[in-house]
Specification:
5-stranded antiparallel β-sheet; Chalcone isomerase; alpha+beta; binds heme C
């Protein structure tokens, strides 16, 4: 036992050291196209944020977050929202989707992301797995912070 204890202590220390680092990455939301579609919105050229956020926004939520979106309150750990931002092709008659600009993600883990309301933020460029936020969660949270009464989520539920 006396020989095992130092190893145990080392294992615990190692896990404590690596754990938060590994889990502070927001994973790519595999399968999100089969989640609940929350809403869509088109942000047009006259909007001040058109450069970064112009296009069609499709918002999705996973099953873990759906109940809280409907009822309100604090989202449970594991809740995920996706912000699928598509470029558009428009003329006088129609607006159609073009290429994906960015896939935005919010992932709830109250402990890991306590500095940004319990949410980890990430953006994946186009259809790639290239990370845009890469740990700078505050850049996104700065804006979402205004939505404290709905646990930092802008979108409201609709039928
Ligand atoms: C300028 C303010 C602003 C910034 C900065 C911002 N967001 Fe948002 N975000 C919004 C608004 C407004 C919505 C509501 C939905 C919409 O616009 O279609 C939203 C919605 C979302 C949603 C869907 C959940 C919800 O709150 O409705 C996700 C996911 C998201 N944003 C991720 C991000 C990520 C990732 C970043 C950083 C790369 C980011 N946001 C930066 C304003 C912002």
């Amino acid at each position: 036992m006396r020989k095992i204890l130092p190893f145990l202590a080392l294992a615990v220390a190692f896990t404590a050291y690596c754990g938060p680092k590994l889990s502070s990455q927001v994973a790519y939301p595999e399968g999100y196209r089969a989640w609940t579609h929350v809403k869509s919105l088109e942000l047009k050229a006259k909007h001040p944020l058109f450069k970064d956020f112009g296009g069609l926004h499709h918002i999705y939520v996973n099953n873990t977050g759906l109940e809280t979106l409907k009822k309100g309150g604090t989202y449970p750990d594991g809740s995920v929202f996706v912000f699928d931002l598509m470029d558009v092709k428009s003329d006088d008659a129609a607006t159609a989707e073009a290429n994906r600009k960015v896939l935005g993600v919010m992932y709830k883990n109250a402990n890991t992301f306590s500095a940004t309301g319990g949410w980890g933020f990430e953006g994946f460029k186009g259809d790639s797995r290239d990370r845009i936020v890469a740990g700078k969660h505050e850049a996104c949270f700065g804006c979402h912070a205004s939505e404290k009464s709905s646990d930092f989520v802008f979108s409201k539920y609709r039928n």
